[in-house]
Design goal:
It contains 19 helices and 16 strands. It is an alpha/beta fold and 446 residues long. It has two domains: 234 residues, 3-Deoxy-D-manno-octulosonic-acid transferase, N-terminal domain (Rossmann fold, 3-Layer(aba) Sandwich); 191 residues, Rossmann fold, CATH 3.40.50. It has a seven-stranded parallel β-sheet with strand order 3-2-1-4-5-6-7, sandwiched between helices. It has a seven-stranded parallel β-sheet with strand order 10-11-9-8-12-13-14, with helices on both faces. α15 links the parallel β12 and β13. α4 crosses α19.
Length: 446
């Protein structure tokens, strides 16, 4: 039977054993560990109780919210092609829990730790027709055991950044058997396809289909009502919406905003921290005070537009971008990575972001297409560079509008990958291909 390396299994068991200790130092790790306790039993119980073996079952796994939204977009298109199928969704991060609860699936839960017994139990109870991993969050134990049982293993929205640690030793050696188990892979780009092959996916099993994230964003924006109260917060004055910001972003934003208000006091800023926890919100308020700015109005108490709105909850950003006239996306000054630039672009809003954007394919596309502007980072402690971009957008409304339209055009050009990915998965369902393990080289009738 194909198997993960012994070292991988030892590392997985060690990680499981250390999880309770590490959880003491991280609320996020603690929430994830709590969610995984009993997840295997819950999923297996659903399988024994509700699995209809006369119907195909597609098991989607996505680590966090971003991967989950990409998976959701493909899942919705696949449901149209195969409405008769059952669908299971698992995730790893606690941040994906709200999304999991609203997906149109038969059951959803945390993915248990990637250990042999749990993987075997779930595959036995769920008897999936197809196992689908979103983006790059492939778990080798589950993948290799699925392949050994003849279950096709697929990847959608598959992307591998040039700097991914998975491409380096020892991760590449530990994960290789899992990627060798992949039967079908929908890569985002030619470069991603090349790097997937380096990880171990057979080249003839990879197709370049684009990124379902574009479809996900377009669908999400289209679902926001034009009378949504969040849209009103940016209307009536030039408003920059700064989304998913970190402290380094906020230092630049508040400095630029203070400079801009001296020249354009009608300017507004809606600031949306990536982690709107109470301590961080208080630190932003203090930083605004030091900069001589108006006291921030928190979104939870806002009843009308204000010069500076501080968003104190999650889930509002997509609509807030639509009320703005320009956008800033956070993450480009630190190591967390640039956050999604596609949501503001889908609203035809021009985008600015920090200098560390090179790992973001979407940012590169927007820059190449003239829909975004990147800070150079030469003024990391001040907002002079952002101030000049911001002022330029305000004073040249026609230019700003044209840049926003170019941003939207990039989004429209990227659409369609979800349907192509769903068709790829549908091939594995409809044709009832022999369940062939690319590792074991044996087949079992479907």
């Amino acid at each position: 039977m194909p198997a993960t390396p012994v070292v991988y299994r030892l590392a997985a068991r060690l990680g499981r054993g250390l999880a309770p200790v590490l959880s003491l130092f991280s609320p996020r790790l603690a929430a994830g560990h709590r969610g995984r306790i009993g997840a295997s039993e819950r999923l297996a119980a659903w399988g024994r109780r509700s699995r209809d073996h006369a119907r195909p079952l597609v098991w989607f796994h996505a680590s966090s919210v971003g991967e989950g939204l990409q998976a959701e977009s493909v899942l919705l298109d696949l449901r149209r092609l195969h409405p008769e199928a059952q669908y299971v969704y698992t995730h790893f991060s606690p941040s994906a829990e709200p999304l999991a609860r609203q997906l149109p699936v038969d059951t959803a839960d945390y993915l248990p730790y990637d250990l042999p017994d749990a993987a075997q139990e779930l595959l036995q109870a769920l008897a999936p027709t197809l196992l689908v991993f979103s983006k790059l969050d492939l778990w080798p134990e589950l993948a290799t055991r699925a392949a050994a049982r003849g279950v096709p293993v697929a990847m959608v929205a598959a992307t591998v950044s040039p700097g991914s640690g998975r491409l380096r030793w020892p991760a590449r050696a530990l994960l290789r058997e899992g990627y060798r188990a992949v039967t079908l892979a929908g890569a985002v780009s030619d470069e991603d396809a090349t790097r997937l092959a380096r990880l171990g996916v057979a080249a003839d099993r990879i197709r370049v289909l684009g990124d379902p994230r574009f479809d996900s964003v377009v669908r999400r924006i289209a679902g926001i009502g034009r009378n949504d109260p969040l849209l009103l917060l940016g209307r009536g004055a030039p408003t920059l919406v700064a989304g998913s910001t970190w402290p380094a972003d906020e230092a630049v934003l508040l400095d630029a905003f203070a400079r801009l208000r001296a020249r354009r006091p009608d300017t507004r800023l809606i600031l949306v921290p990536h982690e709107p926890v109470p301590a961080h919100l208080r630190s932003v308020e203090e930083a605004a005070r030091r900069a001589g700015l108006p006291h921030p109005v928190r979104l939870s108490t806002a009843t009308a537009p204000a010069p500076l709105v501080l968003v104190d909850r999650v889930g509002a950003l997509a609509a807030l971008y639509g009320g703005g006239t320009m956008a800033y996306v956070g993450g480009g000054f630190g190591r967390a990575g640039l956050h999604s630039v596609l949501e503001p672009a889908a609203w035809s809003v021009p985008v600015a972001f920090g200098p560390r954007w090179t790992e973001s394919r979407d940012a590169a596309l927007l820059l190449e297409g003239g829909g975004a502007m990147a800070l150079t980072g030469r003024d990391p402690l001040g907002g002079g560079e952002l101030y000049r971009i911001w002022l330029g957008w305000i004073e040249d409304e026609a230019g700003r509008s044209a840049q926003g339209e170019r941003a939207r055009l990039i989004v429209d050009r990227g659409a369609g990958a979800s349907h192509r990915s769903a068709e790829l998965l549908a091939e594995a369902i409809s044709s009832r291909l022999p369940r062939t393990s690319p590792i074991a080289g044996r087949s079992t009738p479907g």
